[in-house]
Amino acid sequence: MAIDFRLTARQRELQRQSREFARDVLSPALDAEALSSPEERFAATKPAYEAMISAGFLRKCIPLSAGGENAGLIDTAIMAEELYALNASVALTLIGTVLGLLPLLIGGTEEQRGRLLRPFLRLTGAPLAGFCATEPGGSANAASPPPGEGVRTTAVLQGDRWIIEGRKSWVSSATGWDRKGADILSVLCRTDPDAAAERAISVMVVERPASGLIFERAIDAVGHRAHLLPQFNLKGVSVSRENVLGSLGGGLALTAACFTGAAALVGIFAVALMRAAFEFALGFARTERRGGIQPIIEHQAVGYALADAKTAIEATRWLCWRACQAVDAQSPSAQELAIEAKIHGSETAVRVVTDLMRVVGIESYDHALPLGRLLQDALALPVFGGGNIGVRRRQLHAILKRPKYDPLAAVSEVEV
Fold first, then answer.
1. Residues 6+ positions from 178 with CB-CB distance below 8 Å
2. Which tens digit of pLDDT belongs to each residue from 216-250?
3. Which listed site, 74, 81, 107, 190, has its alpha carbon 20 to 30 Å from 40?
4. Homologous superfamily in CATH for domain 252-411
5. Where are the beta strands (DSSP E) in 223-289?
6. pTM score, two decimals?
7. Quick one: what percent of the chain has pLDDT higher than 90?
8. Is the peptide bond before 209 cis (omega within 30 degrees of 0)?
9. In this structure, are residues 380 and 373 in contact, taking their beta carbons and an 8 Å threshold?
10. Distances (CA, A) of 218 to 5, 42, 61, 137
């Protein structure tokens, strides 16, 4: 029977290792979130991130074909759930680096991957990568035709070098540990000012140290308090023409391919936060009487709330795993399922965590308890990786409008 939601022995071991690492290393690193500035908080997570690299978690996200240990997006999802449930900030630094590598992994040549991936395959250091798509003022309309601006960052070829001018923001870890840039940045930029967007925009790799990368500020985000989200300027940044990823002018298609897998992982982030909130609320309900005779779990309303939360967690996880499987299999339904996992998971997480805060009551509003932090992290999920309003309209709506769209295609695929 093709449908089987059980883990393989290898996947169960990956889950166990990830869970233990998160408990022993990432959970104590939550103390960084109490520091005063975004950069201080991010810097304080570096030892935990270095430990994550040393334990091989980045290698576990890089495909076997590129020299890593990853057998597919389902494996990444299993690992990400465990890490993110205990420390969303540091886990996002890891997954943000993977997103920064995706244009290289998907669109890069063998020579480019061999040359640029080396630091990310080692078990030492704290290598970072970032996908520089979002710009100040928003990038929801990156493909907009004139008079819309679309992608405002430009790259002009001078001899054998591209010169990049523009600004980016909300890019995970992009300015690095020292404001001098991540090890590599995959930069979305306009390479032809006159062509239509689908032929005018490219992705190219900026290698560290990047002269002309100017730090502007670290965004003081509501959640993911120890994760770096900088705003920065690319002023005359010079890039070899050999660092264009995929086809010149094919950047929008490459970006879409990268964000399909990322969308499914946003759904897994939602599962992780809901799971952490549920585990706390369940323990609270089993032990707290709140001045009454019996633990509050004995009250019907509390039991119903916990049951609804657990149902939402399981349903979201299975949808995300299905989406990851579709991405791994390069299914025609992969994009639809990944977007649905992202939208459903992210919006369900905000609702579920809020419902569980009501179970706990006013004390859930105290930062001494984890629920407020989990809600702050959950609030990001509907708006990052492509905001849900825009994703619904530009991607899912567009799929549904296709003349040959089959609403049963995703449940009609046959194992080959």
1. none
2. 999 999 999 999 999 999 999 999 999 999 999 99
3. 81
4. Butyryl-CoA Dehydrogenase, subunit A, domain 3 (1.20.140.10)
5. 230-240, 244-245
6. 0.96
7. 90
8. yes
9. no
10. 41, 10, 27, 16
Could you tell me which residues are beta bridge partners of residue 244?
Answer: 204
Asked if the peptide bond before residue 147 counts as cis, ω within 30 degrees of 0, the response is yes
In whole angstroms, give the CA distance from residue 227 to residue 416: 42
56-84 pLDDT per residue, tens: 999 999 999 999 999 999 999 999 999 99
Distance CA 171, CA 301 (A): 42
Phi (first) and psi of residue 187, to 5 degrees: -105, 125
The DSSP line for 48-94 is HHHHHHHTTTTGGGSBGGGTS-B--HHHHHHHHHHHHHH-HHHHHHH
Q: Sketch the domain layout of the chain as residue ranges.
A: 9-127, 130-248, 252-411
Helix (H, G, I), strand (E, B) or coil at 276: helix
Q: 381 with 351: CB under 8 angstroms? A: no
State the residue for tokens 């960052």: 153
1 pLDDT exceeds 70?
no
Give residue 413's pLDDT.
Answer: 84
CATH class of residue range 9-127: mainly alpha
Structure tokens at 363: 């004390």
- Residue 388: its pLDDT value, please? 94
As a CATH number, domain 130-248 is 2.40.110.10
Cα separation of 371 and 365, whole Å?
Answer: 7
Q: Kind and range of the H or E element at 230?
A: strand 230-240
Token pair 């990444």 is at which residue?
76
At residue 409, φ and ψ (nearest 5 deg) are -60, -40
Tens digit of pLDDT for each residue in 290-338?
999 999 999 999 999 999 999 999 999 999 999 999 999 999 999 999 9
Backbone φ and ψ of 63, nearest 5°: -60, 150
Beta carbons of 146 and 153 less than 8 angstroms apart: no
- Comparing CA positions, the residue from 232, 103, 226, 222 lying closest to residue 169 is 232
Strands 129-132 and 184-190: parallel
Element (H, E) at 105: helix 88-107
Question: 5: Cβ–Cβ under 8 A, 6 or more apart, which residues?
Answer: 318, 321
Please classify residue 220 by burial: count the beta carbons closer than 10 Å to its beta carbon, then call 0-12 exposed, 13-18 middle and 19+ buried. exposed
